[in-house]
Amino acid sequence: MSYLPTLRRAHKGAIVLDGSAAAHDQIRTLADLYREDPEGVGDMLIQIADLKGQVERERGLDGLGRAEHVRDDIVTELLNEIGGAEVHLDPRDNHHALMQARSLAHQARAIAEVAQQRADELAVLTAVARGAREERRRPPVC
Hints:
By secondary structure, the protein is mainly α. The chain has 4 helices and 2 strands, in the order ββαααα.
């Protein structure tokens, strides 16, 4: 089953796009896969971890290193094994597909509205802070 991210408010009014429902499902599937093939899954996870240092060392090579590509391929293979991270939309021309598309559009609008409200709040807070800084920088009036 695939899950769309949900929108929620975090501390101090910050907004969070939460994909944990999908992550929970994928971790459970990874655990099942590990139970079936602990050596294979374990080897893949160790390879991913082992490549981290090499990826960091190759960052300055402007794309000439191979470690990041190898690591990404292993991660993609493992992700595909546990069901992937894609949300497939119903391809049929029917009522169910229409309702799915409308639901996605509604969720996207809600996310956009909350994100815009947060951007507006941050713009006001930034302007107020900028004004306070400028006020402190002004020389005192005699």
